[in-house]
Design a protein that fits this description.
982 residues; 6-stranded mixed β-sheet; 42% helix
Amino acid sequence: MRPRVSAQPQEPRIPRRRAPIVITIGVVVALVIAFFVFTGLYADVLWYQQLGFLSVLTTEWVARVSLFLIGFLAMALPVWGSIQIAYRTRPVYAKLNSQLDRYQEVFEPLRRLAMYGIPVVLGVFAGVSASSRWEVTLAWLNRTPFGQTDPQFGLDIGFYVFELPFYRSVVGFASAVVLLSVLLVIATNYLYGAIRVSGREVVISKSARIQIAVTAGVYLLLQGISIWLDQYATVTESGSLITGAAYTDVNAVIPGRGILAGISVVVAILFFITAVIGRWRLPLIGTALLIVTSLIIGTLYPWVVQRFQVDPSAKSLEAPYIQRNIDLTRDAYDVADVEEIPYQAKTDAEPGALRSDAETTANIRLMDPLVISPAFAQLEQFRQYYQFPKQLDVDRYELDGKTQDTVVAVRDLELAGLGEAASWYNTHLVYTHGYGMVAAAGNQRSVDGQPVFLQSGIPQTGSLGDFEPRVYFGESSPQYSIVGGPKDSDPIELDYPAGGENEEQTQTTFKGDGGPKLDNVFTKLVYALKFQSEQIFLSDEVTTDSQILYDRDPIQRVQKVAPYLTLDSDTYPTVVDGRIVWVVDGYTLSDQYPYSNKVSMSEAIADSEGLTPSLAFDEINYIRNSVKATVDAYDGTVTLYAWDDQDPVLKTWQKVFPSTVKPMSKMSSELMSHVRYPSDLFKVQRAILGRYHVTQANPFYSQEDAWTTPKEPTAGSNTALLQPPYYLTMQVPGQDAPAYSLYSTFIPEARGDQSRNLLRGYLAVDSDAGDEAGKRSTSYGKLRLLTLPEDDNVPGPGQVQAKFNSDPSVSQSLNLLKQGQSDVINGNLLTVPVGGGLLYVQPVYVKSTGNTSYPLLQKVLVAFGDQIAFQDTLDQALNVLFGGDSGATTGDENVEPGTGAGDGDNGGSPTTPTTPSDEMQALLNQAKQALKNKQTALAEGDWAGYGEADAQLADIISKMIALSDAEQTGSTGDGSSSDSGN
């Protein structure tokens, strides 16, 4: 018998209520995200407020938020209204097929969500798109006329730069709203039976017909407006021949677009009529007619005109429009006033030819800023936590009443050099700033080829006077540093290291106003979250007197306070009024200047210097250097000066951001003496002048005299990199006295595989703004173009470099310099218009292969016409080139010639230069002959002779090494050196 089991009453199951938990988690997550977003925005407010440019941030925010709301409402409300109208006017007893019944069953529970969710989602996307156009909108609202009209429509150029882009954006946005609305109306009406398809018949209810017809009519009206605006866009669009409206555009495209705009309006009216009378035939026929007409008038007719009328007589028919393109391109790039100077360049180097150019030759720069950075590092770095940039800068200073070109750099921090000492405390509280400016004379060298420093050392000494040497804001400054402290506290920041055995390193405390203050718990928390470092919040060294310095790169700081500017890719440091300041050039750009040729700015400024700027957009056809900006290296103060106060684009942005740009009259005399003509602007202008130096339509059409910038001659024959322009103090024909200038050269544009590396043009611009406070020199920015005749075969940089490389005597000397595992580095190849011709100068550096070695200037190559010289100094080389007496004065004329290469691994300084002894000279001559025999045997395929000459050369080199050792032993043993001969 089974035991009886009594049934136990079961407790009812209580459903688990997960919804409140999920909602709570969602709210918490949303609050956390909102707090992080808020801290980021609040940090931006503090940064801009401290810098004095809070109005820039708030203006941008207000513009973005306003446009987001406008875009959101302009999209969401029409879409929502369209869906609501379609739903509320749906047929009550519509007969639906089974498939639509299933769709309704699925859709109906989600109807309310969709009817509100779809407009909201589309509105958000539209708002984001609209907010991104804040610059276009503000420029339109504050537009400034150019005071110059275009030759086609007679409208002010400001219409194309400021108004047309805005109008086309508005029409495009409105078209998208209406198109999405009509699509959603059709879908809604179809889903609820207002539109039914029965076989070949489409049945549309009255309410649906009215709504669809009106919406379609509005869309076609917008298309008519868009096509009408497209007429004006023809003068800014790039064609196959020019930028701007050419013959076919003026006589076919523009009239055709006007006709199409009118037809669009007529078809829109037909749709409105359909909404009343209920007949679709007229608007459908009108739409078909519009499509056919657009194909005929918009495509076929312009093709016929181009093919059968323009192409057979293009040169004469296009001439007026090409002339428009030439004139307005030269205006837009500010090269209309370039002074063309015919230059009959001499090619014969005659004695005394450089006597009248002595001041120019004295300033020829021998120190290449792209080569000597390792020398700066080895001689002036001092500690592993300092560094110099790989590319140094060129500036000039007034020393002893003369202008001295200099190669300059700041000694900045390199926190990676701290190694195991790179704790948070050290990297953010102790090692906070670089120290000092280092400047070397551009035209001088020491006896062993080192730079001659005008400003150097720690602490600072030199010719640049007293100035604040600390660099808290530089191109390589740490991500952030926390500085400052109570007045009575001990300083913890490293100022500069000890200089001797008994000296101690010096500490300092930042005393400026360089960043937001960490004066309360909330601000500390904000920046702890921003930089994801709890130490900012927890460290005892972070006090209420502390400041946090970040966004310290000069270009980055200027870009943030002037978002409407495109900045030059290179900034340079200079000493102004007792401070180190960074000078940054700012440009106002446009790609909507009528008839102006468009260029890719990134391509125009790319060269062997490897500059890769960040641009808001790439193609441009208008540029002005409208702003000069400075960034104080000590406290990060940013100051903007209106350099071109007549620029309508700058005037427009000054209305948007009032009181952010100071007038040029506020610039000090010292600052004026150190600003320069910016290199990126010059590169863009030389790219334009390669073709637009031709000012007449017929030769321009034939491209008979098109030029290009030479490739970098030191980079090899396969390089695509252009030779960069160079700053030099020189006197160009047409100038009364030498001036700080920027120059570049032109060679004929290659046709197919043919490239003639002959000099055809020499472009120079006066880069000296003078030294009068608030007043620019009248000669500043003056462009001079030396044009060489077609029958004058003056070699270009590529030819000269090839001649240097292939000359037997030069090759022999270079091979000897390479002995002992040394590298020979060719410096920049400079072209200087002196002696009635063009002089090429190239410094040659020698660098041993040790880890701590650095390049030393050992030789100088010069060329004039077809003649070259290769000597230890520029003074020697010029004398050899010009028949024993060049008449020139050079920066290295007092340097005793010789050779030597520095190598820290060898633990000694470079050897003292000496001239070779008679026995050594004889061996050099034998080596030259053996090398020549070796090359001849190789050319003739005589391998036996090649081996014999090679063995002979090796034997001679061994004798030379032995002789060199014996001479050095004799010199150090008795204090005298071997006899030398020339």
